[in-house]
Amino acid sequence: MNPQTRHSLMLMLCAMIWGTAFVAQSAGSGMGAYSFLAGRSWLAVLVLLPTVYAFDALRRRRGEPTGRPQTAADRKTLGTAGFVCGTFLLAASAAQQIGITLNPSTAKAAFLTAMYVVMVPVFGLFVGRRGSARLWLSMVIAVGGLYLLCMKNGFGGIESSDWVLLSCAVLFSFQIMSIDHFSPLVDGVRLSLVQFVVVAVESTAAAFLFETPTLAEFGTNWLPIVYCGVLSSGVGYTLQILGQKELNPAVASLIMCLESVFSALGGWLILHQNLSVREASGCVLIFAAVVLAQLPVEEWRKCRSASRK
Predict the structure, then answer these.
(1) Taking each helix axis from N to C terminus, what angle separates 249-256 and 133-150, rounded to the nearest 10 degrees?
(2) Residue bearing the bigger pLDDT, 241 or 79
C-alpha cells in the first residue's frame, strides 16, 4: 500500500470516529462547553501517554530511531507546534460545543462545521497553495452533498448559533493548516499528546473562569466524556496528525468531511434512523467528491504520454 493511500485510509477512519462521536458530543451538551472539553482532553492525555511509549518501543524493536526530540531546537519546535495546534483545537471545539448547546439541531451543526472543506483551500491560496480545477470541482460537489445530507429543511433564519458554528469551521480550517505545517517537523503521536495537554490546561482554566464545574456533572455525563476522550480525541486526532503528513490539506479536509456521512450512517445502523432519498443522495455526492479529488489523473497523463513515445 502506497503512503498516499495509507494516510487517506487513516483520515477516513478518523472521520468515522468523529462521525459516530457526534451523538456523544450532543449528549454532553447539558454541561458547560469548557468543562466537557476539559474532561475529554485530560482523558485523551491519559490515553496518549502510554501510546507514545508504545510507539517508541515498536520503533526500537524495528531498529528505527524513536520520535523523542533530540535537541533543544527539536523540543522548542514540538512545544510551539503543540501550543499552536492545541489552541486552535480548543477554540474550534469550544465554538462547536457552544453552538450545539445554543441550537441542538445536530444536522445544521454538522453542515456549518463541515464548511471547512471549502475554507481550507481558500485560506491555502494565501500561503501559496494553488488547487487544481478538479480539486475545486470536488469542493463544490462536497458542499452540495453536505447540504442535501444535513440541511433537511433548508437554512431558515440565520441564528446566533449559526455564526458560532461558522467561526468553528474557520478555526478548524486553521487547525488543519497548522497540522499540515508542523506534522512533517515533529513526531505525530507526541504532537497529539502535547496538543491535548494544551487543550486540557486551557479548557480547565476557562471552565473555572466562565463556568462552575461540579463532580456531579462529570458523573452524569461520564459516558459521552469517555467516548469522546478515548476515541474522538485520543485516537481520532492522532489519526488526523499521522494521516495528514503526506497529503494536501485541501484533500485531507475533503476526506474528513466524511464525518457527516458516517454520522448519518451511524444513526441509520445504530439508532435505526431511516435515510431519505435526499440524505442518501448527499452521501453519494460527498463520496464522489472525495474519490474525484484523489483520482491519480496526473499519473495517468504521464503514463499515456510515455506510452505514446
Answers:
(1) 20
(2) 79
